[in-house]
Specification:
By secondary structure, this protein is of the alpha+beta class. A hairpin with a 5-residue loop joins β5 and β6.
Length: 744
Amino acid sequence: MKRILVLVMILVLFMFSTCTAEGFFFGSYTVEHSLHAVAVIGDQYVLYDTIGSHYCLYRGETLLSDLSSQTNFDTNDKMQRIYRSALCVVSDEQSFYGVEMNLDKNYGTSTIKFGRGEVHRLNFEDNTTELVAELDVSPAIVKQEGSSIESMMGFIGAALSGNNLYLVFEVPFSQVESGVFFADEADIEHFALRYELGNPTPQRIPLAGGAKLIAAQGSTILYSALTADSNDVHICMLDTTTDQRTVLQTISGKEGRPANFAYDIPNAKLYYNLNGQVFEMDATGKTTLVALFPFQDIQGLFLLSGNQIGAWTTEAWELRTIDPNAKDNIVKLSVYGSLNNSLIEDFMRANPSISIVDANSDVSLIDTVLTKSSTPDVLFMHTMTDSAFIDLCERGYLLPLESEAVQSVISKMYPDVVKSVTSNGSVVALPISQTTQPMLGIDMAVWNEMNLGNAPTTWDEMFDLIERWPEILKDHRFVSLFNPELINDDARYVLFRRMLNDYEYYRRDQSEPTGYNTEIFRHLLDRFSAIDFREVFKPQLASANQTLMISDLSPSARTVDEEMTPLALKVSEGAQSYMATTLNVVAINPYSKNIEAAKAFVDYCAENLDPLARVELMPDENAPLRPDNYDRTLESQKENVAEAQRLLDACENEVDRQPLEESLASKQSILEMFEDSWIASESSIAQYRAVAEHIYVYSLDSIDISNAASLGDVINRYLSGELPAESLIGELERRYVMRAQEQN
């Protein structure tokens, strides 16, 4: 009871509105938006967008005013520029303020120096700013070792109360002797700078590891602190004049570590987020789910009058009405595996009653199904790294996906892709992307220039080429057969693995069980062992300026490595060639208690499949792909060229025309390059299609993964001459027999 009374008394202390700006690291920008600060007065709030250097005043979702920050001040020296960059925005009951840093950038010496900090009152009525205070920011500046470049420590948050401004920073990791976070008072991983406006010299205040500023009242602050041995978070009060620290509450981290806080002073309520869910904690410590946001990476929360709460990321923000009955209206869908944040956020916007939460990544998927556990609801798996996928799929432990949305997408995919996610005649997983395994690639332009005839199609033909290479080099001494860095042992190892992989694909693809003790594999070993790699990879190759082949090409429809054509080699003349690929798939736990929500999520994945994934998984999807926001960016680039042309046309001074001409030429060059930018071009798609007709989905089971390290050792022993070919075949055959027995 005493604890509750103390908390209530402390909460009364914070009777004025405060602002917290959390999670911004200086110089971190994004493409669309770059929001790093929010401040509130009543039902109005200010966002700072670094892309346009604008302070934006909002009420609800309505933009009331847009105040440009004067961010760039040219000097007379062409090699030097003075910049002003906003660090955060704060507020009191009457006004909004921007906290800005002055930077001196010298392009001649490649130096960056931080000048003073400044606090500017933002006057949205007449679109002006007013300097109200200067700040010494040197305690937060770090000079890079062996360099004249300065950088700012990680900025964590800010609060303004009366004449007291608090800025919280993170000490660079290298400067923390322990190397880990601790929540004791001696840890200075995070610290606050307290300024009395009018006095530029700050008081430096050590905080606990991982601390975040929540609120401030005069010389007293409220902040969160991480515990050392759990995900629990302490809510602490600090009197900065006496250094008296008090833990007021502890928030359990049983379901994850709480982050980002907002504080309702009149009602003595604390708000924090966890996986997009916002919880309310009252003075007694009782917590209630009150809001849900479609964000996986919330940077901060802010409270508005009218029972509104907002959440923001570096790219977006949204508002919600605080609802104490939100728990009754929300379905929590637990998801195992790597999540696509943008997909998750878009799904939650479309389905506001469904909350996506991370499942425990340490769970055993096999045990989950065998014990009929209801969580996780949805499974994101990779056919290479999630060894449970094969077992779950083949044993029928995944829910059949029978919706029209899934079937429509599946029907358009390559047959082997569909086969890999089908069990007992039913599709049980939705492929959402693919990654091609490394294979050989050949530069056909160089090949044709060398007039070497037809490119190899089998490993026999490849070995013929390698054996002839010393003779070919006499006429083409500046051409490297493979990656120039591959010489002797490295080349032998890489080529052997590529050959072994191709045989493994062939072996697994046979209708009848096939091991390694076969005529085909013995023949491949004989051909490989007969090659004198010291003759093939001589030191003179260091001077090569052309490369005929590479050993690590991963075919994709993307516009990369188009000069290299994938080389899918057959293990024998009558065999199939392979483009091995692995898949990212999404599936549903058949014992989930949220089947309908899980089905809705998988359907959404199917309906919103990434465009590049559609091209690579579906043979008839051949439309070229432009970068995101291509049209908008193109128009912007054209406007830049037009503006540069306008300035040049208006210039009558010959001395000034040269830099304007250079600027115009630069912008025209950028425009031309962008006009030819593609995610997937017509030619890159065509090149991918030529090899994708041999697509083969490669999956690893638990035996494969457990034997990976020992298999590498066996191969190295064989290549070093320590292990005879017969022993190698025996080791590989033993692993095949083990696999067969395990499967049976």
